[in-house]
Specification:
Rossmann fold; 2 domains; 37% helix
Length: 178
């Protein structure tokens, strides 16, 4: 059975939920290790057949720990089969929900020397009741500017779970065949 490392960089836990959905799809063909980007140094990436990294965006940026992880593991990432997806609220818009059109994924790929074999973008989730004062108001302002939902009492999930399932099946069929 193949071995897969799924490494996530998540701010509010939604990226982890997406990773868990992918695990449900691939776990019958691969032994999966799920790990946060902050603890990924504990993994010996050489022991994995496939490495998947998922990362969220907050205020237009990925966490610095994502870039440190890539820099430390660049040689391994470039010689293994890998995939990367990012999660952001901008991807709720039809013209910004693909790897070729999402500004955050495009910016990310320009910053790194890693060339994943598979890329994807998923729309995220806005959970106003969960946010602290500053985040709630900053995100509301950003949503107002981008014509998104601003009701501070509600949760808005934009994720297309069928798209997540399709991505998981692509990983399964294209990278984890026995």
């Amino acid at each position: 059975m193949k071995k897969t490392a799924i490494i996530y960089s998540s701010t509010d836990g939604h990226t982890v939920r997406i990773c868990e959905k992918i695990i449900e799809i691939i776990k019958h063909k691969s032994k999966v290790s799920l790990c946060s980007i902050e603890k990924a140094d504990s993994l010996d990436l050489e022991n994995f057949d496939f490495i998947l990294v998922g990362a969220s965006i907050r205020y237009g940026n990925h966490k610095a720990s994502l870039f440190r992880f890539i820099e430390r593991n660049l040689d391994i990432l470039n010689k293994k089969q890998t995939a990367f997806f990012n999660v952001n609220a901008v991807a709720r818009k039809e013209d910004k929900n693909t790897p070729a059109t999402n500004p955050y994924l495009i910016k990310f790929l320009k910053k790194v020397s890693w060339k994943p074999d598979l890329l994807e973008v998923f729309a995220g989730k806005i959970s106003y009741p969960k946010y602290h004062f500053f985040d709630k108001h900053m995100i509301r302002f950003i949503m107002w500017m981008s014509k998104g939902p601003t009701d501070p009492s509600k949760v808005f999930e934009f994720t297309d779970w069928n798209k997540v399932e399709s991505f998981g099946n692509k990983v399964l069929n294209d990278f984890l065949k026995s």
